[in-house]
UniProtKB/TrEMBL annotation:
InterPro entries: DHAR1/2/3/4 (IPR044627), Glutathione-S-Trfase_C_sf (IPR036282), Glutathione_S-Trfase (IPR040079), Glutathione_S-Trfase_N (IPR004045), Thioredoxin-like_sf (IPR036249). Residues 65-143 form the GST N-terminal domain. Pfam families: GST_N_2. One of its GO terms (molecular function) is glutathione dehydrogenase (ascorbate) activity. The keyword Oxidoreductase applies. It catalyses: L-dehydroascorbate + 2 glutathione = glutathione disulfide + L-ascorbate; RX + glutathione = an S-substituted glutathione + a halide anion + H(+). Belongs to the GST superfamily. DHAR family. One of its GO terms (biological process) is ascorbate glutathione cycle. This is Glutathione S-transferase DHAR3, chloroplastic-like.
Amino acid sequence: MAVSAAISTSSMAPSAFFFARSSSSSSSLLASGKLFRSFPPPSSRRRLSARASSIPPLEVCVKESVSSPGKLGDCPFSQRVLLTFEEKHLPYDMKLVDLSNKPEWFLKISPEGKVPVAKLDENWVADSDVITQSVEEKYPDPPLTTPPEKATVGSKIFSSFIGFLKSKDPNDGTEQVLLAELSSFNDYIKENGPFINGDMISATDLSLAPKLYHMEIALGHYKNWSVPESLPYVKSYMKTIFSRDSFVKTRAAPEDVLVGWRPKVFA
C-alpha cells in the first residue's frame, strides 16, 4: 500500500475518545506525530472504487520503526490490525508513533501509551481484539470471522515462544513446550488447512501470523533455532501467510524485530 508524504499531527485534537484496554493485546509504542496516508495498491483499487468513495480512511496509531524512522515498527498486535484492514480492502491513515518521544496528541488518545489505537465511529479504540471485532461488525465483507470452536487454535504458541526465548537453561523444558504446541498446530493444519478455518483466511490467522513471524526471526537469531522439518504443515502455513500481499505490506523489518526482543533475551 503506497504511503504519501508525512503530515504533522502535533496540533491534532481528537473530538472523542474511547478506550478498550488489554495488556495482552497491546504493546508499548514509539511515536513521532507523523501522519502517513495509506492507499489501496493498484491491484485492489478497482475492487475498492465504490467502497473507497464512501468510506473515509480509518485512522490507526502504530509503532514506528527504531532502525528506520518513518517506517512501520515491530508490534505484532499493530500488524494484526493492519492485516485486517488490508484483507478487507479498507483504506487507512497510519500514524507512526515513536516511544522515545510521545507527542501530547497521542497521549490524549492513548494515556497508557500503547498500540494499536484506531478511530472507529469518532471514538478512539485500543486493543487489537476490540479493534478487529469492531471492524468485522462494521465491515463484514469479506468475512474474516473464525468459528468459536476454532478461535483458540494456536493460541499458546506465542507464550511458549517467549518462554523459550527468555530461557537461560537449555534443559528447563521450554523448548519442548514450544515444540508440543507447534506439533499440535501441525496436526491441526494437516487435517483442516491450509488455514485455521479451512480454505479461507480468517481473523485467527491474522492474529497468529505476526507472532509466528516474530518467533521465526527472534529464535533464528538468538537461539539459532528454526521450526523442524518434522513439522511440514507449520512450515507450509508460515510460508503461505508470510507471502501474502497483505503480510508483506505490513510486516516489520527483521532488524526491528530483533531490537524489540533483545531486552527479554538479555534481561
